[in-house]
Write a structure and sequence with these properties.
The chain is an alpha+beta fold. The protein folds into three domains: 2-75, no CATH class; 79-183, 2-Layer Sandwich (Tetrahydropterin Synthase, Chain A); 238-277, no CATH class. The protein contains seven helices and eight strands. It has helices spanning 2-31, 110-116, 121-138, 143-147, 151-166, 185-235, 238-254, and strands at residues 32-35, 39-45, 50-51, 61-64, 70-75, 79-88, 94-105, 171-182. The strands form three sheets. The protein has a three-stranded antiparallel beta sheet with strand order 3-2-5. α3 (121-138) crosses α5 (151-166). It is elongated, with a radius of gyration of 47 Å. The protein starts with a helix and ends in a 23-residue tail after the last helix.
């Protein structure tokens, strides 16, 4: 009889142990939270005032929390979102703008972000703000400006207008990049033709200016030579010319490679050189 009683009680103890083990596993799984690298947790106290906003968020690593509380995990590393937008230029033409934004939540205000905006802050705040800023900025420019010279300007303006809004929403915006501006094909072709014509015109003006400068240089050079000749002519008297002639004749006569025959004299009294070898 005793043996039968032992055999009857054993399964109950085993079931109790299994039950307690399962309960312990469930309890532990509810209380243990691991925050991965690049993330942070916002604690929600079910019986303690809700979202914790007056303390730093839970950092990376292992944490024990009460099983009736919750932890909402956020990515706090810099993230990038790509967006294609249809916007209008200043003259009402459709422009497609491809842009991306670098952003992250303000880790020191993560509790406030969760409480006031929520985990989907990207779709609630960032994207609508970027779209609104892009429409406002692009609407100030013509398609030609957007295509050629103003891309850096609109990128900066979109960033500044977006940052002004999201910085008050517990979000850090690092940069907005305008990656492409797509115009209607007909407008794009017309702008390219105009730019080509302007380039050719600038090239022609450059060549013309270069030719003018060269002509001016030659004129100044010719004037300089003429002035020099005039000054030289004014300074060469008959006596100076005669002395120069005699000096040259003497040098020629002294040359071992020259044989000079002088007969009579020239009109100016200078010897006449008939030949040499």
């Amino acid at each position: 009889m005793a043996n039968n009683q032992v055999e009857f009680n054993f399964p109950k103890k085993a079931l109790l142990i299994i039950f307690l083990s399962i309960a312990a596993i469930i309890f532990f799984s509810k209380t243990a939270v691991t925050i991965e690298s690049g993330k942070a947790g916002v604690l929600y106290r079910t019986f303690g005032g809700g979202v914790v906003t007056d303390a730093p968020p839970l950092g990376e690593g292992f944490h024990i929390v009460a099983p009736w509380n919750k932890v909402y995990v956020y990515e706090v590393r810099r993230q990038e979102i790509f967006e294609k937008m249809k916007v209008l230029s200043s003259n009402g033409l459709d422009i497609q703008l491809d842009a991306s934004a670098w952003y992250k939540p303000d880790i020191n205000s993560l509790g406030k972000l969760h409480q006031e905006i929520g985990e989907d802050y990207l779709s609630r705040i960032i994207l609508p703000t970027i779209r609104s800023a892009a429409r406002s900025v692009v609407g100030r420019y013509t398609p030609e400006q957007l295509y050629s010279s103003k891309r850096d300007a609109i990128q900066k303006e979109i960033f500044e207008e977006t940052k002004k809004i999201v910085s008050n929403q517990y979000i850090e915006l690092d940069e907005i990049l305008v990656r492409d501006v797509t115009l209607p094909p007909t407008i794009k072709d017309a702008i390219e033709r105009k730019l080509k014509q302007e380039q050719e015109s600038l090239e022609y003006e450059f060549r013309l200016e270069k030719a003018k400068k060269e002509a001016e240089r030659q004129r100044i050079e010719a004037k300089g030579k003429a002035d020099a000749n005039r000054i030289l002519s004014a300074s060469l008297t008959a006596k100076i010319l005669q002395d120069k002639g005699i000096e040259a004749t003497n040098k020629l006569a002294e040359s071992p490679n020259s044989k000079v025959v002088v007969i009579g004299s020239g009109k100016s009294g200078m010897p006449i050189i008939l030949g040499n070898q």
